Amino acid sequence: MRSNVSAWAIVEEHKVPLEIALLYHCRAIKGVVSMLDWFERPDGYIIVMERPKPACDLFDFISDRGALDEPVARALFKQIVLTTIGCARKRVVHRDIKDENIIIDTTTGKLKLIDFGSGAFLDPAKPKFVDFEAYID
Question: pLDDT per residue over 117-126, tens digit each?
Answer without folding.
Answer: 999 999 888 7
